[in-house]
Amino acid sequence: MATALLAGNADAKDAAASMTPEAAVAHPQLWPSLKRLPRDAAVEKRVDALIAAMSLDDKVGQMIQVDIGSIKPVDVETYKIGSILNGGNSGPYDDELAPPPKWLKLADEYYDASMKRSDKGPRIPIIWGTDAVHGNNNIVGATLFPHNIGLGAAHDPALIRRIGEITSIETAAAGQDWTFAPTLAVVQDDRWGRIYESYSEEPQIPAEYASAMIEGVQGKFGTKAFLSPQHLIATTKHFLGDGGTGGRDQGDTQVSEQVLRDVHLGGYPAAITAGTQSVMISFSSWNGVKMSGNKSLLTDVLKDRMKFDGFVIGDWNSHGQVPGCTNESCAAAINAGMDMFMYSGPGWKQLYTNTLAQAKSGEIPMARVDDAVRRILRVKIRAGTFDRGRPSSRAYAGKFDAFGAPAHRAVARSAVRESLVLLKNENVLPLKPSARILVAGAGADDVSQQAGGWTITWQGTGVTNKDFPNAQTIWSGIAETVKQGGGTATLSVDGSFTTKPDAAIVVFGEQPYAEFKGDRPTLEYSADDRSDLVLLKKLKAAGIPVVAVFLSGRPLWVNAELNASDAFVAAFLPGSEGGGVADVLFAKVDGKPRYDFRGKLSFSWPKRPDQYVLNRRDLNYDPLFAYGYGLTYATPRHLGMLDEKRPAGMAAGMIGQLFNKGRVPEGWSMAMESAGQASTPIAGAATALPTGSMTARTVDRRAQEDALRLAWSGPAIGTLKIAAPRPIDIDRETNGELSLVMEYRVDQAAAAMVTIGVANGTKIAAVPIGKTLSAAKAGEWNEIAVPLKCFAARGADMKTLSSPFVLSSGAGTTLSVSNVRLDYVSIPMNKCGD
User: Fold this and answer.
1) Which of 10, 32, 443, 660 has the highest count of CB atoms within 10 angstroms of its CB?
2) Is 315 among the catalytic positions?
């Protein structure tokens, strides 16, 4: 339950009673007052001297962080930019799969550039930030820990501290200074695509974990370990209320100030007391006001009331969403309390120029500039960046054998064991290692799927097992365990077998995702593909005991899959050490468990797919498995058959897949139309406009009738539209650099202009793709990705789209279409159209 922070304070109680959910101005006196951490007089004196020696140009440079995909070291030399980051899909020298030495080499280049001066100005080293959120997950070979949702189930602060320490060592080895972790979101709606970054739906667990992770990453404040060479600068994020947005990324947390404080503040007081050196602002809003522009929270509460004396950084162009701002100009965010912009894109020089002009004109007061720079310099000095030289010369730099070191992997494997939650066990587990074991399911031998999003790439997609040289799949861990126990293990993804096994382990679940792509309309697992359920039922019908290992970044409605299994394990996203799963599933030779299940749910599990919010503060709290649930071998429980009926009329909402496996989402429509003709819905194996000028036929690609063959014979332009049941809002996805992706095959070269677009009613915003199609080899399947921002630039209102996919052509084109979706791809069209 939420912790009461203000008990016994009469003034606070009176003020709390006057709060309304609509208010977006915080009252500092209602928030916890913390003691300011002791400051080192020598550090403060050094900061004073630097500020006195800096030009205004220097100061503005310190207030900007730029993604390495948008800035070169030579630019740092000129503009004295204070920080760089590698975003979700940025790697050194444009190589996402670069080995650790390349990361260190580029760190040296940026550092050297920041230290070059042709004048008498001070040399201020640049710092490099990275999203090392479950290990140093951006670099090939790093140890990958379970995502936070699994760690929340482990209920082990000491483990969290050790994970922070290991992550720091493996990140410092590559020359980076700073991690954007931990996330302390207290997620209240499981549809949100970032839920796996949260420890719990309740504030207690992040409150318990915050200091442990901060101390693990930075070292303990007040000791010699604090920000020593093996440690990093930590970031506490995302301030504030990012977990209350109703399941929408960058959404609006509509709650009272009391709820914002008692629930969403969660671990922030503990993090600040532990000495976190940076805080990242949330993309989201509170009661309609963007956090990046909310002075009452950033300055009055965080800095003044809670005495945070590090610096506040924005999130990936988040300042551009503040009213009156753009990505290249936002005095309002700085004036509200943001100390450092986080910028991605080619316009960072414009941001620098505009911010400089705003400081000169007084639109940004000089006192605000100096305060921001003072905070940044204080952290840089504390972190030793002025004194330790080039990244490659630092004590832990270049220790590449730390990546995936056996001791580190052992901790990660232990974390997997502790995070597993046993939801069902009908006297099947533990399994005998001497048995004949069948291992099935798409997730069994796939590190990418078991690691999830934010793993090498932003969305965790586009990588294979070979990109994880220090990892072990769940299948490999099982095979190793069974071999040692004298049994046999066979991998068969589809569950086929020649000799009947003694038991089957089926590993399945969600495919990797991160924000935007990960948002869902309901909690129904795999509504459009029931192959996992079919596999479970097939094995069970054959009289084989079935153990389900479910990989997911959130609780999901899996009643049917639970019914089809004899045992069911919520493994969440365990990371690189799949062997930790086998450790708990199998007994020792004597039949006793090697390890018992320890995990307890830190998020309630839904009984129905429309139970998006399951909160213990709600009088109608009615989960399938309550917060804190988790069976052990010592505490079995018969589950019984569960209700598999899907609630009638449950809205499909907006999802990433627009056309897949031959169909559109439930409630959506797909039709052809042409000037002067009525819209003709696509139905059956063949559909044609009344004039015959455009036809659509189902064709086979990966499965029977899973694609559509379109032929245009003119003379008028013919159009295929996929329409939503009601206007949809994909403005956040547009800002998040997602694309409209279409897989296609050219069956007859385009003889007329072909366009792809989106529509607001009858208004279509489209880009030409005919040249791209003409260049494709006939008969081969290809993929085209058009950034959503291209359609916005052509006038589309991305907040009220009626059709997120419109394909048009004139006579002479025959094109097959498959798998139309909104997705992140690393190489979209460089230009908006041909």
Assistant:
1) 443
2) yes
